[in-house]
Amino acid sequence: MKSAVIVFPGSNCDRDMAVALEQATGAKPHMVWHRETELPDGIGLIALPGGFSYGDYLRSGAIGANSPIMREVKAAADRGVAVLGVCNGFQLLTEAGLLPGALLRNAGIDFICRDVALKVASSQTAFTSGYQSDETITIPVAHHDGNYFADNDTLDRIEGEGHVAFRYDESVNGSARNIAGIVNAAGNVLGMMPHPERMIEPAHGGSDGKRLFDGLVQALG
Ligand SMILES: NC(=O)CC[C@H](N)C(=O)O
């Protein structure tokens, strides 16, 4: 499968994401600079990587969400192409309106960088098909703006419709209902603050992240 990683000024997880995608898909992803106005033909999976696009100025992801390539990312998402946003990628997706809610400053203000235990809230998405529902997995986080916020009606809706993909096992950053990752209504866009691409080989301390990429590629066929 052909995949693409969108690279913004300040992305710093783009190469890790590329390694994870190459392992899972068997082909190097296309690295697409954010100022491009077209995606390569036939892309089946788009990744928005972690980092500090535009130095997190204004709000994390707010400026990058208006980069030219994001028009194409939105159009691709509307056509059903899978879009995976990790950390700053999740922030970009909420700022771009592809996912509901917002990522606020962590409740404790500090930057948090450590492994966290996550509950797989639903294995009924392409992104979580490599897991069992309610399974606990370990994936690292590294962020200062990971505190997921949405109004109560939105939270009730995304929970009720099974769009919460991952929850923190304990309060990590103040996120509403411990939400760590969500999918859109169509199920083809996932945003998550933890970094699966940082848990794909024994040297990382585990492979729970690899299971996301392998499950996703299998589900997409
Ligand atoms: N690792 C990351 O993607 C960092 C995300 C973001 N800029 C934050 O610190 O909240």
Automatic annotation (TrEMBL):
Location(s) in or outside the cell: Cytoplasm
Segment forming the signal sequence: none
UniProt-annotated catalytic positions: C87, H195, E197
Gene Ontology CC annotation, any one: cytoplasm
Pathway: Purine metabolism; IMP biosynthesis via de novo pathway; 5-amino-1-(5-phospho-D-ribosyl)imidazole from N(2)-formyl-N(1)-(5-phospho-D-ribosyl)glycinamide: step 1/2
UniProt xrefs under InterPro entries: Class_I_gatase-like, PRibForGlyAmidine_synth_PurQ
A Gene Ontology molecular function term of the record: ATP binding
Biological-process GO terms, alphabetical: 'de novo' IMP biosynthetic process
EC number: 6.3.5.3, 3.5.1.2
Catalyzed chemical reaction(s): N(2)-formyl-N(1)-(5-phospho-beta-D-ribosyl)glycinamide + L-glutamine + ATP + H2O = 2-formamido-N(1)-(5-O-phospho-beta-D-ribosyl)acetamidine + L-glutamate + ADP + phosphate + H(+); L-glutamine + H2O = L-glutamate + NH4(+)
Keywords: ATP-binding, Cytoplasm, Glutamine amidotransferase, Hydrolase, Ligase, Nucleotide-binding, Purine biosynthesis
Broad class of the protein's primary localization: cytoplasm
Functional note: Part of the phosphoribosylformylglycinamidine synthase complex involved in the purines biosynthetic pathway. Catalyzes the ATP-dependent conversion of formylglycinamide ribonucleotide (FGAR) and glutamine to yield formylglycinamidine ribonucleotide (FGAM) and glutamate. The FGAM synthase complex is composed of three subunits. PurQ produces an ammonia molecule by converting glutamine to glutamate. PurL transfers the ammonia molecule to FGAR to form FGAM in an ATP-dependent manner.
Cross-referenced PANTHER family: PHOSPHORIBOSYLFORMYLGLYCINAMIDINE SYNTHASE SUBUNIT PURQ
Subunit: Part of the FGAM synthase complex composed of 1 PurL, 1 PurQ and 2 PurS subunits.
Protein name per the record: Phosphoribosylformylglycinamidine synthase subunit PurQ
UniProt organism field: Parasphingopyxis lamellibrachiae
